[in-house]
Amino acid sequence: MDQPEPFTIRPATREDLPVLGRLGAMLVRMHYEFDPQRFMAPRPHTERGYASFLGSQLDDPEAVIFVAERDAEVIGYVYASLEPPNWKELRDAAGFVHDVLVTAGGRRLGVASALMRHAIDWLREQGAPRVMLWTAAPNGAAQRLFDGLGFRRTMIEMTLEL
Question: What's the rounded Cα separation, in Å, for the pair 10 and 2?
Fold first, then answer.
């Protein structure tokens, strides 16, 4: 018999916004460390700004945020939305996973995979014909996760600083 997961996945609520702001700021810092020329720099109020942004997404019927919780503590989240066709990106309508992050203490438990599966299932239920995402080039761990979930590489972003 399978062991139950040591965490639960549930929809985010307004009460989660302070911790989601902190997790979002972790995401900002991580990407900035990957490439400070490409990614935005952390600011004094990044946590509050990210919490405000994710709070605006809680009321959007075309977006979803799930959190992973263990022992009454949020240890990760995923944010995804439905995106319309985009001529600039040469793509049809799609579900898009914007963020997925798991705290250091929540890693190696299957949290990221479970969050991704919840987001993919939600996007499928909403009628998304495909799910897309972007990942930072140096983020090998995330790329292994996405490969394992069946994602394939389709574009390579390139940047020239002026």
Answer: 20
